[in-house]
Protein 1
Amino acid sequence: MRRFLAIVTCLVASGAMADHELEGRDLDRGQALYGDYCAACHGANLEGQPDWQTPGADGVLPAPPHDETGHTWHHDNQLLFDYTKQGGADALAARGVSGFPSGMPAFAESLSDEEIWDILAYIRSTWPKRVQDIHADRNPRHD
């Protein structure tokens, strides 16, 4: 568990993408794409898999919730984008984290960059305003 917390701390502290990446996105398309590509693992209501904080026998954590009860909003936009596009292991490796078993597959061949941003914007749109504001603070504006 300490290793997991250290990795999460490292990722939260990493460089953030400007919050405007999620502004003006097609939330309806994001919701539809979420249903097609994400809901099977992360839940139709963004609830994640049961016992998502407990690794399976293979050491891989189940898919976390993307609602406010999970940790998605603890991460900056760029990490969420990279994690979705490159897959968990490659996104973490690019940030210098190795050996963390992630079950997140890469969607680079299935989703365009714009589609990934729409999904991420949809997910964020479901959070309470307080959580959206906290997440926005992790993604400074660069106007």
Note: The mean pLDDT is 85.
Protein 2
Amino acid sequence: MPIALPTCPMPTDYTVLLRDFGGILTPFLGGPEQRVNRLGTRFGLRLEMPGLDIEDGGMIYLSRLLQGRQSSVILPWPLLDFDPGTPGAPLVSAAVTSGTSIPIKGLIAGYTVKEGQFFSLIHSGRRYIYMFTADGAANSSGDLTASIFPLLRTPLSVNDVLEIARPMIEGLVSPGDELSWQIGLDNAREFSFSVMEAA
């Protein structure tokens, strides 16, 4: 069960990370290079938090981070100034095994997804972050087939939930790195950490 990180206060800085499992094949005799795409490309965030004292929830934040090292954490994906509006109750409308598009139902008629807009998708209890790669408007029935990045990392089932209004990232805390924090002279805890999708 993922641990929910507190949403207040908000981080002071985000860095978006992309772990790409594809690569470029470069022939050693000078032939044309070839891009090879592989499944598994995923996102992460590096976060800088303001100094948190006990009253600001510093102890709780530290507790959740440490628990997240052994489980996983969820937190909102940063939309910053982008307002996704009111999409409705979007769900996957048909089973999908792979590819770069998903059929969606349950959108408000006419709702438009925007190229570069992030959303999360829940399958079998796990969240996955994706990005829409083209504008698309739902028809009068609230249906839309949307193109996405990266390649689907898991087969989708009918009625899997899309979180468009408030996407969430689920992942491991600082995978492969030490987790550290500073304690200032004013006893405030200062955290810097990353969250990377595990699948």
Note: The first strand starts at residue 3 and ends at 4.
Protein 3
Amino acid sequence: MLIDSHLHIYREREIGVRAKADYPIVEYGSKADVTYSERGGDAADALAAIAEAGVAYAAVLNVFLMHAMPQPAEGLLWPAEPPHADRAADLADLNAWLCDLAAEHPVLLPFLTVHPGVMTAAETADHVRALAARGTGSGAGRARGIKLHTVAQRFMPYDPGLDALWELCSDERLPVIAHCGPDRLNTGWATPEAFAPLIERHPRLPLVLAHLGGGDFERIAALAARYPQLRFDLSEIVSWVGGTNAPADLAALSALVREIGPERVMAGSDFPWYEPAWVIDAVEAMPALSRSERDAILGLTAAELFGVAG
């Protein structure tokens, strides 16, 4: 079973096109032959890409962003009373839209967006709890987990405003997929080390670090060894193999996956930047992996984590 564990869908194609243009990929250094998808990223584009790749399920990871990307007034942590509470309805609406879309298309597994500067700790946990309880029976439209992009959202993974949510996710086995890698300002919002306090406080949290650490990939194996409960995905980094700040080739990427443990790594496309079919082809081309290890990366690990059956 093929599962894309990292995909984005936008309400309109033009929004996706603009998001791709406004988010330049710089952390992997330079690479002359990077190929990007020509699709914009609305539901029709995503469903077509999923079908063409033969993917059974796709985790849809949306992110709630605020204009000019405000950050905490003091330090790196948001106050207990969120200063942008006037945006709570907008955040909730984005999550509801995604769950409604997934109810219409059960191939989609919705992952919710959160922000400690928008909702209080209790409000966040209650909001996620309600959407995770949807779709009783078939499960269609039920929230399957949480997506974090702490660079774009400007908060630390261990912000106390999310502690109640992490307890809920730990109890209910709701996976959390988090962008992981450096930021251009070197603030450290999503470096591998930024997740250590979160894991220490919530050791049962089913946490997935995306992009295999991205531009920080050389530091990811040490974190993986320290926290064996961590999982990872191959989104984006697999398309940048050969970049000046990326694994040198598929053999080097495969060696890193083997060091971490192939059963802890999942395939993901980061659509609409890249195509689901491309990451599948790349995993099939990675040397020194057995058929069972490829099958785990391409879907079996995600199926168990996301609670879906073939």
Note: The two ends are 6 Å apart (CA to CA).
Protein 4
Amino acid sequence: MVLTFVLSMTLAACGGGSTQTSGGEGQTQEKPKFMSILTGGTGGTYFPLGGAFANIVSDATGIDTNAETTGASAENMQSIKDDKGEIAFTQTDIASYATEGKLMFEGNAIDNIKAIGTLYPETIQIVTTEKTGIKTVEDLKGKKISIGAPGSGTAANAEQILEVYGMSLDDIQKQDLSFDESVNGIKDGNIDAAFVTAGHPTAAVEELSATDKVVIVPVDADKADKLIEKYPYYTKEEIGSGTYKISAAVPTVAVQAMLVVKAGLSDEVVYDITKAIFENLDKVQHAKAKQINPENALNGVGIDVHPGAQKYFDEKGIKAAN
């Protein structure tokens, strides 16, 4: 009996039979049995990509992983802080605001997120239809305009674009609607236009183009330059002709979509997540997967990269562009 007791204590001390993994200071040592990927609304790009990523991560790691619909970027950052998810999609600008405690995170900095990497450009699309007569950003003044669901990053993009045109949210009849709600509102005539920050083509806008003649309001080059000068995480972007059945390309701006992870996950788990996603993109059916390249994943991240993800990029010789 004494020998049995000593043996059992020795095994316990060695971690025999546990699911523990090695990790850095402050990290969760036990491999989770379940993880949530926080995405966005069903009409955007995050949700379908998140579903595909969840399947890939589940198969590669053995951790039961699901994609959850959310209010997107800003809400996702708060949810990570509140331990309501382990992996999340967000915009690079929103992740920076979160870690720095700025704008919607003023007095509420998020200190437990780290980057996995950037994914693809998220285009700021100002969507309306021909029947509204809206052709320019200035035409939005006094109109009913959706700036995205509460908790999304779209509202910040809308406010900053209006700013470079000498306008503010007070100059429009602001509506806080998801992409699907925005499209339905435009269809029904309840709103006039909507800001949609998502990889294009966006499912909700494609749906609108099936019944109405879609107009994408341009962001003029000089205003884009002014925006980028003040907010350097923006880049110039173009929505090509034929997208949403538009006849000519439309200039606009974009931020980057990225994946973040709860900082407390072990290096081993995050390494496995990173490797699984970036090496199985051929299993993702969504068109945006073609724009995701691990070679670019450290460009424009803007926050600290999780050591587990960094280990993967180091093995591949991937560095951030200067």
Note: The first strand starts at residue 34 and ends at 38.
